[in-house]
């Protein structure tokens, strides 16, 4: 399936060979010159995010993702499902972040040996083999200073001499013989809302992308069952391999034996046909006058119905090319204007209800411009803790032991958007 992997840094726009700083081949060796097709596409684009995920060459397919300012380019010699390869590449990045706490060119170069060992185990002859973090950590020990010194002296590697116990069972994503003094499980419901609102404040389009992140620290081989009050809201769901899909199709219940540690249980999508309440409003007035400049006045505030604090609020306004500068004053947060990309960025942070954030000032326009494009759109980013904006609610969570008998003494600590069970 996957013949080779090339990892390329951002300066690959200009230097073709020098910036492929890591390559891994599982089958026959593919020349680096194949990346020229990838670089040719880069020269035509203004932003790395615009890179096409699939690039067809005369004899190969290049499937890539862009994360952490790095391109991960997989080379396939035959037609494959692009989403399958893209998912594997994302799993590679997640594994590197889990091992080294970050994924960057510097970190990868400092841990070349461990990275190659991980890639050897994650793919076997081009097909995914072991991609679960807890299984990989049992096979390849995460690097630390003491282990690196010992390996240098003894000449050993981080690879274990025994096969992970989970690989030999029918539950390959979980280690066997797991024991914890305190048995706990954490579930976080994380949702992202994407909406378009017109000048009058009416929602034109809104959809929600959500996921359930888990941190499971339970002994033995627990079997969990999770049900929702309103599962009909969930659409276009994708699951971790541990979820029994047939039971979800029949009863809309998540039944699974979880991996040990951190993992994503499921992802879901809520379409625009559902009613989505936007938890923030923006009152704005942006007037661009020809040759005389313009004025800007923006006020941001939370809606009183949410009852939660709105944090990490950021506004980005892509200005027309005719704009030279923005002379503004804000009563909260800090602002900046990029004269090259023509983007006005206002970083508000947490909204103070007693004094709503306001940004006002003038806009300078090039005097030679006789016509100005239409008023710019406003991109708003924010976060709200302990709030599931979709209204999805957990009904109950049942736990069964190795003999499928309910655990006793389970205590629930529940909050909006997250819940915690403790034994």
Q: Compute the number of helices.
A: 7
Shape: globular
Strand order of the largest sheet: 11-13-9-8-24-23
Counting helices, strands and paired strands, the structural category is: alpha+beta
- Strand percentage lies at 35-45%
Oligomeric organization of the protein chains: single chain
> First CA to last CA: what distance?
44 Å
Approximate helicity band: 10-25%
Strands, total number? 24
User: What does the average pLDDT come to?
Assistant: 81
Parts with pLDDT < 50 across at least 5 consecutive residues? 12-17, 402-416
What does the largest sheet look like? Answer: 6 strands, antiparallel
As a whole number of angstroms, the C-alpha radius of gyration is 26 Å
Question: Which key terms come to mind for this protein?
Answer:
24 strands, six-stranded antiparallel β-sheet, alpha+beta, 423 residues, 16% helix, five-stranded antiparallel β-sheet
Description:
The chain has 423 residues and is of the alpha+beta class. Helices cover 16% and strands 39% of the residues. The chain contains seven helices and 24 strands. It has helices spanning 35-43, 82-100, 105-110, 112-122, 133-139, 145-154, 245-251, and strands at residues 4-9, 20-25, 54-56, 61-67, 70-76, 123-124, 127-128, 184-197, 203-217, 223-228, 235-239, 253-256, 261-270, 280-289, 293-302, 310-318, 323-330, 334-338, 343-349, 358-365, 379-384, 394-400, 411-415, 418-422. The protein has a six-stranded antiparallel sheet, with no helix packed on it. Strands 2-1-5-4-3 form a five-stranded antiparallel sheet, with helices on both faces. Strand 23 and strand 24 form a beta hairpin. The longest helix has 19 residues, at 82-100. The protein starts with a strand and ends with a strand.
